[in-house]
Amino acid sequence: MTLQQLRYAITIADSGSMNEAAKHLFISQPGLSGTIRELENELGIDIFLRSNRGIVITPEGEEFLGYARQVCEQYALLENRYAGKKTKTKARNF
After folding, report:
1. How does strand 54-57 pair with strand 48-51?
2. Are 10 and 75 in contact (CB under 8 A)?
3. Would you give per-residue pLDDT tens digits along the chain (94 residues)?
């Protein structure tokens, strides 16, 4: 499982459509669908039910997406806090 897969799943859930999510993410719909299928296979759950009318989030998917959102939010906090800090401060011995 990667952070990118989590972000993809969240984007799909937010847009309600694989096709719309793929447009938003600037990737192909088959590529996005394949990435999510790999994630679902790795987890052993279906996050989304797919039909010719679109997608529906499964109960397991709802739970997973809640955790995925938390992970992405925590990552953003870490990135905002520590990204761009190039130098380490060393403790001085006096």
Report:
1. antiparallel
2. no
3. 999 999 999 999 999 999 999 999 999 999 999 999 999 999 999 999 998 888 999 999 999 999 999 999 999 999 998 887 665 555 555 5
Counting Cα atoms < 13 Å in the Cβ hemisphere of 42 gives 11
Burial class (CB in 10 A: 0-12, 13-18, 19+), 18: buried
Question: pTM for the whole thing?
Answer: 0.84
User: Residue ranges of the domains in the chain?
Assistant: 3-79
Q: What is the spatial distance between Cα 81 and Cα 63, in angstroms, rounded to a whole number?
A: 28
Nearest 5°: CA angle at 57, between 53 and 59?
A: 140
Angle (nearest 5°) at CA 74 between 90 and 23 = 125
- CATH code of the domain made up of 3-79: 1.10.10.10
User: What is the C-alpha radius of gyration for the chain, rounded to an integer number of angstroms?
Assistant: 17
